[in-house]
Fold each of these.
Amino acid sequence: MRVAVHVAVIALLYLMFSFSLFLGLQVSTTYGNIGMVVSIGAVIAYVVLVYRRRSRRVTMEEQGP
């Protein structure tokens, strides 16, 4: 279940990035730049969220029951 959620989130991040490239190349460079900032921010937020959850889980496992 967790792997499926991670795959879905990564696919959505890829679609967001692709759409921002489309906006930048076909519509307007301003919209493309805004889309890039938003998509890069979303990727950074996802990486930080996953890293914090992993480090917290490792810390809880080290403490024991």
Amino acid sequence: MPRKPDPTPPQDGVVMPADAFKALSAFHQELHGIVRTLQPDVLAAIGYPASSNHQLLRDIFQALAQRLAPVVDACVRTPGGGDSHGPSPGPRLH
């Protein structure tokens, strides 16, 4: 009996479970929330004077969010798992 070929991932992307994408997306949103919290007007509203440390932290978290944005934006849902090599464990993202 011939063996089934190994599933081949898409040539231009990575396949991940939908739950992993949800966690990645939540982390991305969390980074944006931190950036918003570190805005000088928000810091002043909650009783913290803005400082150069806050600016540096805001810049770091903003850079992380910007680096992650293309990854999150590039994900596309494939309802059946995206391949034809047997049953799929659930929706996957490319």
